[in-house]
Amino acid sequence: MPGYTIHVLGLDLSFAADAESARIRKAVDLLHRRYDTLEGQAGHISKERLLVYLALSLADDYLRDQERLQQLESTLQQLLSRIDEPEK
């Protein structure tokens, strides 16, 4: 498992992950973009609060994506069952 050292949101972090370096860079870029957006919208609040808002925003995105994935899997299952049904 490759090890990484990254600088994100003012912190130096070292960790090991099965992700490719390009994916790690994309994740860091996403965090920076989302943080900057929240910072621009929120005005003068602490970095800690911004990080909590960022975590909540990313968690909400994840949950919506999970719901969408479940819907797509259900639709796919329905289509597959139609294919498997004998013709009448």
Automatic annotation (TrEMBL):
InterPro entries: Cell_div_ZapA-like, Cell_div_ZapA-like_sf. It comes from the Bacteria. It holds the Pfam family ZapA. SUPFAM superfamilies: Cell division protein ZapA-like. This is Cell division protein ZapA.
